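> @MW can you paste both from yesterday?
MW: sure, first one:
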Amino acid sequence: MKKIGILHGKERSFPKAFVERINSKNPDGIIAEPVSIDKVIQGESSGYAVIVDRISQDVPFYRAFLKNAAISGTAVINNPFWWSADEKFFNNALAIKIGVPVPKTVILPSRELPTDTSDESFSNLAYPLDWEGIFRYVGFPAYMKPFAGGGWKNVYRLDSIEDFFDKHGETGQLVMLLQEEIVFEEYYRCYCIGGKYVRIMPYEPRNPHHLRYESSFKPSPERYRQMEEIVLRINKYLGYDFNTVELAVRNGVPYAIDFCNPAPDAERTSVGEENFEWVVETAANYAIERAVHYKEGLDNLTWGEYIKRSADKLPLA
């Protein structure tokens, strides 16, 4: 019997529905359950053919468990090795290389020295930075946010240079991005599952959290196809099995704003019933597909085109 597990934190509606949906389909030789861990021994199988990861970004123990599971053959969704290596600034750099429009963005060293470092640790860093060049490139208004963070934690909207230095002083040891503000006419949040299934959801980030999926945006068929192609291209190169891409449309051009969301919000109360039904059904079908094709003891992970082309020394374009 092949087991599909889901590893999750405090969320309840999606994990419960995901397990119930798979088991209701009664796939031959496959069952689903919440992951149970009573010990983790190096190189030993987890007992799962597939694990959907919803929490290891916050729990290092879980990330180590998933890497051990993966090296023993488990198909982990998403690839824990790539997820550990990825972050938002690299995502933007990759997007430029594959022809996806993104806001002008720079990365900044932390305002405070990292623990166990001193001024001498930064002998390669110019002081002061070329602030004039940075501000000229990005412009104002701008957004500042952690380069590897999630959600809306530690996100600032900045109106001026003075505003920047005031807010940057609050960021401590966080490494931040400074990013051009895209004043959009339309905004969309897009699920991508299995690198092939896309759900484009009108989204209004300026609304309160519980109302963000209630908006009047409606893409034309041409815009829909354009956004779908962008979402698929991004996830093809990153290699995520489960991700969301946020697209802000300015002057008819969809800009990828945030596309490093490997454990995206899938709670019924926030995404709404129709989106919830789509993500449960699609995730369940994809997990079953991965379990059917699971090969015991082999590498069953998804690797993106960036990694594969780098290994083969092929150009990104």
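MW: second:
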Amino acid sequence: FIAIAILLFAFSTVLGWSHYGSKACEYLFGTKSTIVYKVAFVLMIFIGCTMNLGLAWDLSDTFNGLMAIPNLIGVIALSPVVMKITKNYVARIIKKEDVKPMLSVFPEIQEEQEKAM
């Protein structure tokens, strides 16, 4: 049972990563680039299956850890926006001040959302 569960989990993980990577590649470089990505992905699967297990785990851990870098950059870059929205929420909900709700940080979307309300 455990072997089958691990097989299914690994297979679904590979499918998910392939799809997410393909969509990211399509977004960044266009639809024609997805074929190159898919070929490289399949080659990496083959290389990963034939390499030393310890090296495969070390590479996997390293690249998973490196994914934190763009996430941290995004968190730092968006922190002023989050603070602005949080201050608006605290003023309205917790302090019960008469403040207009912030529906978006972008003025044109804010106006559009206000009209829709």
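> thanks! Residues 2-53 form one domain.
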